[in-house]
Amino acid sequence: xxxxxxxxxxxxxxxxxxxxxxxxxxxxxxxxxxxxxxxxxxxxxxxxxxxxxxxxxxxxxxxxxxxxxxxxxxxxxxxxxxxxxxxxxxxxxxxxxxxxxxxxxxxxxxxxxxxxxxxxxxxxxxxxxxxxxxxxxxxxxxxxxxxxxxxxxxxxxxxxxxxxxxxxxxxxxxxxxxxxxxxxxxxxxxxxxxxxxxxxxxxxxxxxxxxxxxxxxxxxxxxxxxxxxxxxxxxxxxxxxxxxxxxxxxxxxxxxxxxxxxxxxxxx
Length: 268
Known about the structure:
- The protein is α+β, with helices and mostly antiparallel strands.
- The chain is 28% helix and 21% strand.
- A hairpin with a 2-residue loop joins strand 6 (137-144) and strand 7 (147-157).
- The chain is globular and about 55 Å long.
């Protein structure tokens, strides 16, 4: 029987999720609100919220789990070419955490093939944005001539990264943002990005499925590790853009045509 919870009830473990023969494999619990505190609890346990308008909050832990080991990221020849062109073109920038609300709202509103509506309901936007201001959720953004044209948002706890959603308003804009996140993870010792569920797009980039038990074991080993700081500056935040990180993906990094503009503060 599916547990119904309120805000004062702890989330059950992922191992209690409904099984493959049920109508909702991977569903762990229903109820409560999405808050920064609840999100922190959920992600540490390997759970995430996923529900639609008019539904109660549903908490999931799929088995198997789709993950992207950053050492296995596939940088195709076409994406490598697009990335090099992006890095040497004036007005093209990667930013971290300068426009989180814009990114999550774009992820919510961008139409997707085979999908009606969005699971990123307004309550989710508000909860993740509040968590962003507390340092739990982050964005990677692709900018062209001062316009946000693509990006993704993700969760970071300890040495664990959890990818959430991407959007692109230009070809390859979301892939370039993902490549930037992979490069940052490689440079800073974060070995795995959670992708939650299997898609052909993610598989083409190197993601693969692992058993839930293996995923939860990885969490135990990494969520309580101190988050890595920017090399050489213990005062700097972890998730900032560093051009040198591209060396983990590219044999030679094209010189920037101009230094990126300083990101505007995210006051949303």
